[in-house]
Design goal:
alpha/beta; 7-stranded parallel β-sheet; disordered C terminus; globular; Rossmann fold
Length: 334
């Protein structure tokens, strides 16, 4: 089996690479433009893996440039499409860039998938496509995007559905909940933002009153589901659709902030909580349903935030002193 991972040098991509290297007879192609990472990060993960040498091909390419994708999908069995502009704030700052990455980039990868006759296309989406709707938030609710990021992800889902029904590609859009964990150096979501702020000696800023909820998923738990998504037979009735990838557990942001402070205090580091203005387009309640996920991935297991947060903090503490001038840690394989 040959799996192509776009955005494979990023946070989720590197964690996925670790697990794919444990799959017998699996060859991996990692496609990235390295605008927020470096090939060395891939090399470090491969070097730390037993039997990883010779099984990974690294491709520098820009998904928004269709001509740069020529030949990269030849012989591939499945694509995990992680490459994207992620996050609400970045999409507000540069909506055109968000559109180019998340709509044109996704279209280009689907076209490459079609022309190479690739069986399956796993698309990384987001629960943000629903906007602020009352829970429970299930996959068949209509999209009501409030920010450019959500709109571009909704468009990507629509293209996946169209390519499934028009060309027979086995597409599935996985709506990730709030992912955290090791290697999240460049993440702008709340856990990484809190940890980087504390390590920089800055206050831990909670936007709004902190009662907004998130469903936090540890990155290795997500990566295991992504491996299943390319290996397993999926219910044909759900192909072309979306699936929430969430734990089913809600955590208030203010409770997360207190947990971060307590964990740092146990490591003899102090932090303080401050409150800032609410963010535009911020989801107030994140409570994705999990019935479809349980049906598609019945063996999925999840660690709690109480279990995953200490591991994440320890990774940040271990790599903060060795970060490069670019802001990236110099060794990410641990």
């Amino acid at each position: 089996m040959i799996v192509l991972v776009t955005g494979g040098a990023g946070f989720i991509g590197l964690n996925l690479l670790r697990l794919l290297l444990r799959v017998p007879d699996c060859e991996i192609r990692v496609l990235d433009d390295f605008s927020n990472s470096s090939p060395e990060r891939i090399t470090q993960v491969v070097s730390a893996s037993q039997g990883g040498a010779g099984r990974v091909r690294v491709i520098r390419a820009d998904i928004t440039n269709a001509s740069s994708l020529n030949g990269v999908t030849d012989g591939v069995d499945a694509i995990v499409h992680l490459a994207a502009q992620t996050g609400v704030i970045l999409s507000l700052a540069n909506a055109r860039r968000d559109m180019e990455q998340n709509i044109i980039g996704t279209f280009n990868m689907l076209e490459a998938c079609r022309t190479a006759k690739i069986r399956r296309f796993v698309h990384a989406s987001s629960a943000a496509v629903l906007g602020n709707v009352r829970p429970p938030q299930h996959e068949d609710m209509p999209s009501r995007p409030l920010v450019p990021y959500a709109a571009s992800k909704a468009a990507g889902e629509s293209y996946c559905k169209a390519y499934h029904h028009s060309f027979g590609i086995e597409t599935i859009a996985l709506r990730f909940s709030n992912v955290y964990g090791p290697l999240s150096w460049n993440k702008g979501s709340v856990v990484a933002k809190f940890l980087k702020g504390v390590l920089a000696g800055e206050p831990l800023v909670v936007n709004g009153d902190g009662t907004q909820t998130r469903d936090f998923i540890y990155v290795e738990d997500l990566a295991r589901i992504l491996v299943q998504a390319v290996q397993s037979s999926l219910d044909p009735a759900l192909l072309g659709g979306a699936c929430n990838i969430a734990t089913g557990v809600q955590t208030q942001v203010i409770d997360l902030a207190h947990a971060v402070c307590a964990a740092f205090a146990a490591r003899e580091r102090q932090c303080r909580v401050e409150f800032g203005p609410p963010l535009i387009g911020d989801t107030l309640v994140s409570a994705p349903t999990t019935d479809r996920r349980k049906h598609l991935f019945p063996d999925a297991t999840f660690c709690s935030i109480a279990e995953g947060l200490p591991t994440t903090i320890d990774w940040f503490l271990a790599h903060w002193p060795s970060r490069a001038k670019t802001g990236l840690p110099t060794n990410v394989a641990e």
